[in-house]
Amino acid sequence: MPASYDVVVIGAGTGGYVAAIRAAQLGKKVAVVEKQKALGGTCLIWGCIPTKALLEHAHAFKVIQDAKEWGVTMPAGAPAIDMRQVHARKDKVVAGLTRGVEFLFKKNRIDWIKGTARLAGTGRVDVVDGDRQTLQASDIIVATGSAPRGVPGIEIDRKRIVTSDEAIHLAEVPRSLVILGGGAVGVEFASIYRRFGSQVTIVELLPRLVPLEDEAVSAELEKSFRKQGITVLTGTRVERAAATAEGVTLQAQTADGKTQPLAADILLVATGRSPVTTGLGTDELGIRMDKGYIRVDSLYRTSAPNIAAIGDVITLDGVAHPQLAHVSSAEGVLVAERLAGQEVRPLNYDHVPVCTYCDPEIGSVGLTEAEARARGYDVRVGSFPYGVLGRAKMAGETEGFVKIVADRRYDEVLGVHMIGPRSTELVAEATLALRLECTVEELVRTIHAHPTFAEAVGEAAHAAHGAAIHL
Ligand SMILES: Cc1cc2nc3c(=O)[nH]c(=O)nc-3n(C[C@H](O)[C@H](O)[C@H](O)COP(=O)(O)OP(=O)(O)OC[C@H]3O[C@@H](n4cnc5c(N)ncnc54)[C@H](O)[C@@H]3O)c2cc1C
Prior knowledge:
The chain has 471 residues and is an alpha/beta fold. The chain is built from 13 helices and 25 strands. Helix 3 packs parallel to helix 6 (184-196). The radius of gyration is 24 Å and the shape is globular. The site of flavin-adenine dinucleotide has 35 residues, from strand 2, helix 2, helix 3 and helix 8.
């Protein structure tokens, strides 16, 4: 007799494991099939957690390098990075969190079936390796996530030409690093390895770094990166890259049409991620797909009955979907509640906060100025620089600003875009403001504690009304 469950989840990333826990909380009998040796998926094992742990090391190194400014006397000689200790600490953080998910599975009586799952028909999942068996399920949630995407013509050998999966484990700090892709992953690794001492070059095809952010944010990041000694080549296409015994040679075409040779110890390809659906059985079941992604509706139903899909592996009615951990988790909660018979409403993707942990870090939510104008709003904006704040001066972190995009007619806050210290934390206030359909006036009247970085949010609201106090 096959083991029988109310819900079988395929994949234990931040989408799948959260869906499983929520379904179990609501009384469902749940199994999760996960092929990796640990739970937590991309976010915990290769993504959010290891990269942010490395960024914390980079930040600690920065403070130590600035010891003189802080009045700390150091023994003679320049401080140096010990990559063995860096990786040991990072891996300990990762292991602690993945074991934490295992604990939560036990607490919620969720069975972890170790192996690779394949959809085998309505209500059936085959585990084709590991704990081989067939599982029966009233409902199936596919949360198989994504994997690094290559670039045609560039062979990833995982030694000289690497993806983020290898870049989190480099045994030594490369003397030079070229990063292909100026999106979130690319700029975070640029910050990490520049601080550790690498010569870093970022090559981005589009005209600006972090191209999905507000243009003012991209410009500020580029200014700061150049100041830090990072070479930024935007509007540049890499035409060829080849690994050699000593490193990597590249040929790029710059924005003005010139051919530019580049060379580095390591090339990091950070040009996006592809959905993981190979061998999953979606074609055999006739599930509707979009270029390898599973197409779902606003409540994450696939075209097959009783099979839902969430997270990095989906498109929403054919539209690209943000590949973010917290988005996959929110979708997991929603699907679990729907399967338990609760009333659920589609998520509002305009209210998804996006955080990029480069230095200076970025937090944003809602419409950029350009998007708001394109949607026909009568836009007004207000910006406030962190550099004016007492708290920022004390911390020695004075780069960046908070920018509010608002609708002049109803005074509604449409978007908030921050670059600078603690932006990834401050964006929480902005997210709540959008969720509650706040006006700029309400942000102005909200008392912000002094001295805090959050005062920049209140002051940006004042600025949107043309009356910043401290400018
Ligand atoms: C370097 C990097 C940094 C990132 N930083 C951030 C960040 O700071 N903030 C943020 O929000 N997002 C970040 N992300 C994105 C985030 O990690 C993903 O959006 C998130 O992990 C998606 O979750 P998921 O559950 O959809 O898929 P995944 O986390 O990819 O999990 C899918 C799981 O399914 C398993 N699986 C796949 N196929 C099968 C099968 N057939 N059978 C059994 N198991 C299977 C996989 O082994 C995997 O464990 C980052 C990503 C990267 C690469």
